[in-house]
Amino acid sequence: MIAPLPLADGFPVFTEDDWRTAVAKMRGRAAHASAASAEPDVAITGLFPRRAGARAISGRTAGAPWQIIQRVDAADATGVAAAIADEAAGGANGVEISFAGSLFPLGRQLPVEAARTIAAALAVSLPDRFELRVDTGGSLAVAEAFADFAGARLGRLVFVFDPIAAVAVRGPSAVSPVDAKTYAAAAATMLSTRSIDGAAVVADGRPWHAGGAAEEQELAATLATFVAHLRALQSPERIEIVLAADADQFRGIAKFRAMRLLLARVAEIAALASAPTRIHGETAWRMLGARDPEMNILRATSAAFAAAVGGADSVAVLPFDALAPDLGNHGRRLARNTQMILADEAHIFRVGDPAAGSGAIEALTAGFAEGAWKRFQAIEAAGGIVAAIAGDTLLREIAEVREARIARMAAHDLVMVGVNAYDRDGGRPAPTRTRRTPIRRAETLVFKRLAEPFEARSP
User: Fold this and answer.
1) Which residue in 295, 318, 331, 426 could disulfide with 418, CB within 3.0 to 4.6 Å?
2) Domain membership flag for residue 170
């Protein structure tokens, strides 16, 4: 008979006091880093006990899987229907395609004039109860083409365009508040008159995130946009929330949970009786690296996990090679299967709000929700999100956070594996620019990936 192995022998025993001493040291370092970085959001700097009496945050139905969405980026109509059919056969529940004028940072967009041809082809090839997400780029002609061809077999049709985020990206002179209201109302009418289930407009957090926003800033701007759309449409079921899912797992879970709390507060104030607003998550463009793209697979896995655990109704994973000039099927297949493993093999959807009661995540959730609500109130006091964009505060503060974060990358205070640490040569690469530029005024959101300063140098 083999004697039991004393596996714990030789390991030190730590008491709670030891842990608290270690946390106190970490808290001091975190406070110093926070002061140096100008990051506005809360951080995990304590040792949190389990939150007694915590309740699950209502959102996606407990025990129900999220929708697995796959982006199909293309610059022409050739093969789009076939690529989408391949995604459906591979297990995706829906796809998202983009047309010219999209706010999305990746440059592959379909021509507007091809919309009716593509819509007609998809009408006969999409499987039953499929979700089709169309980034119209602000074109009502594109929206109408897909509304005309969306049959009863289609599960949902979502027009993935945020005319208010377009103001932040292109400037107030490019898009007026009247244009934004007209687009939203016309798109909603297209869906309603044809009895199509879906969203006419989105409150899109991705442009804010790509422009450098921290969690509270993204949440506040997205919530303010949702409220602006709600005022225009009076139909919360025709509006969808879209958030970026970053690689920081705990903060990602907390951000999606915080958005549920914020939406619940708006619903309470506005006396909304309809079903909860749907939240879609997409892995963040900002965290993609081009020089060692395989690392993007790991970041996307953590981000997709966070969005799903945080209660997103649907999730899209950007392919690891999304920045490559020529996209193949391999990256999309890995992106899709990342979600399928999380759902079909890890079964993480089986528990409703598994983070409920976790001291650290509950503290982050509450901190994000409270901070975002204060920022949202400031936006409303300034006259709403469009007026805040035209003002001198919102975009400038986001730009300051973006530049501070990039400075942290340059100082190796913020680490991205394969970008500024542990690159292919095992070194610590230096960025091409380390000088921080003061932000005096920001006219628009400026999209910038964290890896960009390290990718400009020669290989």
Assistant:
1) 295
2) yes
pTM over 0.70: yes
Does residue 228 lie in a domain region?
yes
Q: What tokens appear for 385 in the block?
A: 């999100």
Token couple for 394:
């919102």
C-alpha to C-alpha distance for 223 and 208, rounded to whole angstroms:
12
Q: What is the spatial distance between Cα 169 and Cα 47, in angstroms, rounded to a whole number?
A: 40
CA dist list (Å): 71 to 42, 237, 317, 398: 32, 23, 8, 27
Chain position carrying tokens 């996209």? 327
Rounded Cα distance between 98 and 121, Å, is 16
pLDDT digits (tens, 9 = 90+) for 257-278: 999 999 999 999 988 876 679 9
Domain count, the chain: 2
Place of tokens 């700097």: 45
Q: Count Cβ atoms within 10 A of the Cβ of residue 88 and give its class: 0-12 exposed, 13-18 middle, 19 or more buried.
A: middle
> Phi/psi at 94 (nearest 5 deg)?
-175, 170
Counting Cβ atoms within 10 Å, is residue 281 exposed (0-12), middle (13-18) or buried (19+)? buried
Is it the case that residue 34 has pLDDT exceeding 60? no
| Higher pLDDT, residue 107 or 231 | 231
Average of per-residue pLDDT across 9-23 = 80
pLDDT range class, residue 459, cuts 50, 70, 90: very low
Give the CATH number, domain containing residue 165. 3.20.20.240
Task: Please indicate, yes or no, whether residues 391 and 246 belong to a single structural domain of this protein.
Answer: no
